[in-house]
Amino acid sequence: MKSKNIAISFVILTIGITWILWWGIVIANQYGYLTYGTPLMLVLYMIGGNTIPIIAIILLLKLKEMTGKELIRKIFGFKQPIRFYIFIIIAAVVSYVIPIVMDTSTITAPLYIALLCFQ
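Predicted structure:
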């Protein structure tokens, strides 16, 4: 396949699958078959939102640009020293989990409201 054909295939598949899934959710919701928040709706919504990497991986494997092992190694390979990853995990635990466990967190509004107050 030529690179132009690959790009066209990527765009058509990505937009097509995403729109089919999302408009399917909308139409099913309008007729009462799939209500908001149900597990099936959320799965379809997440697949639609992640169509770009899914199609990219499928095209890479189909075109034999990479083997499955090379692709997994490239996706999950560490690009920074391990101490940075450990620091991020510890920071997330300290800032989110500990206040919840100690029952000292009180969420009165979404986080973006706090960002809007600084204007």
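Summary: The mean pLDDT is 82.
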